[in-house]
Amino acid sequence: MDKVNALGEYLRARRGLVRPEDVGLVAGRRRRVSGLRREELAMLAGISSDYYLRLEQGRDQNPSAQVIDALARALLLDPAATAHLHELARAPSRRPARPRIERIPTGTAQLIDQLPMPAYVSGRYLDVLAANALARALSPNFAPGKNLLRQVFLDPGDRELHVDWDRATASVVGGLRAAAGADPEDPNLAALVGELSMRSDRFRSLWARADVGHRRDGTSHMQHPQVGELHLRREKLAVVGADGQQLVIYHAEPGTDSARALALLGSIAVTDARDSALADEDAAR
């Protein structure tokens, strides 16, 4: 992501995804670019081609809200993507340095340990900050210290777990793009994007699409090595007072095979925890 021209990079990416026929234009035979030409987008938004060029090249980074709304309509952006575009267009502000170590509120940590379903807290870079035993049993990549982005794109085991891997990866990159809009010059975020762009073709392709936003809730389809197929609901709740942290909870529809499988996984997790505790006691004697 260009640290200086995040707005222009985003406009260029989204322009390349809109086909002329999607907005009532005739593509013609001699088109050499995918998506819309600059002058076509400018015409649809009701601004001059020269002004749009300045926006895309970063020579004008403070367009009015009316111009941004016009560009969003011309680009067929949904509400989340439109909000992201407005955020990129705001004048940059001096943000206080963020602490290197993210800490979750004590009450939140206590809460997830008491929940009877898989739950974990992720940070602004999708690092797992805390997780209960059932979440760790659902996936070892839900353990504190793991980064969800690295795991889902780089760990073959995570791909085997997620039957809906294509949908899951698209969602998580959209969420990262939304987070990037809040502070496009964040060096930690830029480093993570750079690393994954180098190591994962799938991530690089999704990031280039510039889709914005993740589902705040949804479903996950998993194939667990111990309990088999799981269809789980996933809820994402913002942790109040914690910058970018989310509480993620998985649960199953009552009375379903997935609910029974999740209950079995809970029993396995309890047994494993008890056995581990007994082994530690024996070792200490």
Automatic annotation (TrEMBL):
Where the record annotates domain HTH cro/C1-type, the positions are 35-82
What CDD domains is this protein classified in? HTH_XRE
Q: Which organism is it from?
A: Pseudonocardia yunnanensis
Q: Which Pfam families match?
A: HTH_31, MLTR_LBD
**What is the name attached to this protein's record?**
Helix-turn-helix transcriptional regulator
